[in-house]
């Protein structure tokens, strides 16, 4: 089984991480209130829902690039409207009759769905926190939200007779700050129904592929591996490409530091990167769980956290809890994918 917890920090300059609506010609940035040392700050944020949307978008893209085909037209187009069968098209949206039928579609499987009329639902396997400015007095004081004036030309077909070209002026809010975030990825339930017997999944898969049961079981194993790797690689795209209003302001973003924890058990979440001591606190609670729950094996990969490099040298080769420091994201994700392959080969993987 594969469980992944992520926490980290990024810097964003002049970006609209999440839009929150408009007042006339004024488009606003999402805001939230945080408390630090007894003082309330109103700060720009990236919502967990927005984070989740962008992961779903990149998930579908990576999955197709790796040869995946089991997703409907909505998923292929990056439209976050889930709850339709894998063979649904724009002109023929088909509601599923069961959870097993629904999760044949990639995005239904990983990101969940709810169909109120038939009470069919699935919880998301990928969960995101808000990204909020790092909880440091200086950073909270300097986190900025401001408006920039834009304009667009009014098309000729809406001009009044005798008038020349017009400009429509509007204002868009942007933000600049250093942010912390956290992610929980439960990949143990990929292509497994949460509320039905697995036999129903085999039946649904057989009906879709029109193959024999022994062939279906092999296909399921390969499809599961493909979906898990796609979900992880989508995170790499995600941490360098999120935010709204990208046509006018491609986000100026950079990952500062990140920890990725992978385990064969449902370990505690990593402490959000917004906290100054998030690394030490994350290590403390996840290590405590790993060493006290039998047959738990956990690996931690750290990028950009140089102050903790000595911890990696203390690892015992036989230890069930290992900390690995890496100098680049390529090495981090290469190691992560190798560890996923190892976990998938174990019993129950």
UniProtKB/TrEMBL annotation:
Role summary: CRISPR (clustered regularly interspaced short palindromic repeat) is an adaptive immune system that provides protection against mobile genetic elements (viruses, transposable elements and conjugative plasmids). CRISPR clusters contain spacers, sequences complementary to antecedent mobile elements, and target invading nucleic acids. CRISPR clusters are transcribed and processed into CRISPR RNA (crRNA).
Q: Which UniProt keywords apply?
A: Antiviral defense, Coiled coil
Any keyword Coiled coil?
A: yes
- Give a GO biological-process term: defense response to virus
Organism, per UniProt? Answer: Candidatus Marsarchaeota G1 archaeon BE_D
Q: Which InterPro entries match?
A: Cas7/Cst2/DevR_sub_I-a/Apern (IPR002764), CRISPR-assoc_Cas7/Cst2/DevR (IPR010154), CRISPR-Cas7/Cst2/DevR (IPR052681)
What's the protein name? Type I-A CRISPR-associated protein Cas7/Csa2
Q: Which stretches are annotated as coiled coil?
A: 195-229
């Amino acid at each position: 089984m594969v469980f992944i917890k992520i926490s980290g920090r990024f810097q964003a300059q002049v970006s609209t991480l999440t839009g929150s609506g408009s007042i006339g010609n004024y488009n606003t940035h999402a805001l939230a209130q945080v408390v630090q040392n007894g003082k309330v700050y109103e700060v720009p944020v990236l919502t967990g829902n927005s984070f989740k949307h962008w992961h779903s978008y990149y998930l579908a893209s990576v999955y197709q690039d790796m040869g995946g085909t089991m997703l409907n037209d909505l998923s292929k187009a990056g439209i976050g409207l889930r709850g339709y069968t894998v063979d649904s098209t724009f002109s023929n949206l088909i509601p599923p009759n069961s959870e097993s039928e629904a999760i044949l579609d990639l995005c239904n499987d990983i990101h969940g769905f709810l169909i109120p009329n038939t009470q069919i639902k699935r919880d998301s396997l990928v969960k995101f926190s808000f990204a909020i400015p790092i909880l440091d007095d200086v950073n909270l004081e300097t986190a900025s939200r401001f408006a920039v004036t834009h304009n667009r030309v009014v098309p000729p077909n809406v001009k009044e007779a005798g008038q020349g070209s017009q400009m429509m002026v509007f204002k868009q809010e942007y933000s600049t700050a250093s942010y912390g975030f956290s992610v929980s990825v439960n990949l143990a339930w990929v292509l497994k129904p949460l509320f039905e017997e697995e036999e129903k999944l085999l039946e649904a898969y057989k009906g879709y592929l029109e193959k024999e049961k022994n062939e279906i079981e092999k296909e399921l194993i390969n499809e599961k591996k493909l979906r898990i790797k796609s979900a992880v690689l989508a995170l790499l795209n995600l941490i360098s490409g999120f935010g709204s209003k990208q046509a006018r302001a491609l986000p100026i973003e950079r990952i500062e530091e990140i920890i990725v924890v992978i385990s064969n058990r449902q370990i505690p979440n990593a402490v959000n990167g917004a906290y100054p001591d998030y690394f030490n606190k994350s290590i403390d609670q996840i290590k405590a769980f790993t060493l006290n729950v039998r047959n738990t094996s956990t690996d931690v990969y750290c990028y950009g956290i140089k102050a903790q490099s000595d911890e990696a040298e203390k690892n015992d080769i036989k230890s069930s809890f290992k900390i690995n420091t890496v100098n680049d994201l390529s090495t981090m994700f290469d190691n992560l994918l190798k560890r996923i392959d190892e976990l998938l080969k174990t019993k129950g993987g």
